Amino acid sequence: MKIDILTIFPEYFSSPLAHGIIRRAIEAGLVQITPWDLREFTHDRHRTTDDRPYGGGEGMVMVPGPIFEALEHLGVDEAGTTSSKVIYLSPRGRPFSQEMAVQLVQHEHLVILCGRYEGVDQRIIDHLVDLEISIGDYVLSGGEPAAMVVVDAVVRLIPGALGCESSAEHDSFSNGLLEHPHYTRPRDFRGWKVPEPLLSGDHKRIEEWRRRESLRITLERRPDLLATAVLSTEDLRILDELRDSKGHDSTDREQE
Ligand SMILES: C[S@@+](CC[C@H](N)C(=O)[O-])C[C@H]1O[C@@H](n2cnc3c(N)ncnc32)[C@H](O)[C@@H]1O
Q: What pLDDT score was predicted for residue 83?
């Protein structure tokens, strides 16, 4: 997989790409990630990448020229005409999710455009961008941190990127639920004990405990997820029990 990042701050990515799972995936040749300096695609003495907005108002807008030329250099044409997927990070984009990360990892080539100032000239978005992604309902100073969020979530899904120490299959959201809690040694840390089922050595009991905890945490924190999660009859029974014990209102699924 190839990921190209268009930015005016390429050095921003030096550290996040040099650690952990992402670094290992790069070293193993599973992904090639290149931050491109948009200023390299300017032609004036000041290497200008922004200008004042037509119509007036506060702030600057990123000019289309350097972005167009960078995309051209990467072999990207009008949106939808090449196999590359061009993403623009923007608070106006579709909310990023695990489901989107799963879709994005299917692409051989992603190009991620990081905005600064008030954002990029709309004509770039209209003609060259395939997908606008927001990482949340807040405004960042630039697309770079958002690009790293997307890159991280996608790269860990590349087959072989996670070592055997970890698995994406059981992560939160992968089965529509939040994940159960984790514990490690020591068994007793300052009087705080590891839940007994996890010490039992009984795999069925451990799985049952984890599933129940996953359901409990999802019910408490993200009950909206239960409406679309794949749930067994046993899961539904556990949820009823959890609602009764906590005095939860009967929600979502029952109202459907
Ligand atoms: C200061 S913001 C521009 C905000 C824009 N004027 C607006 O109100 O929608 C500068 C850049 O940061 C990035 N950005 C800011 N918030 C973001 C978010 N929640 N998700 C993704 N990218 C974001 C975008 O690339 C944006 O072009």
A: 85
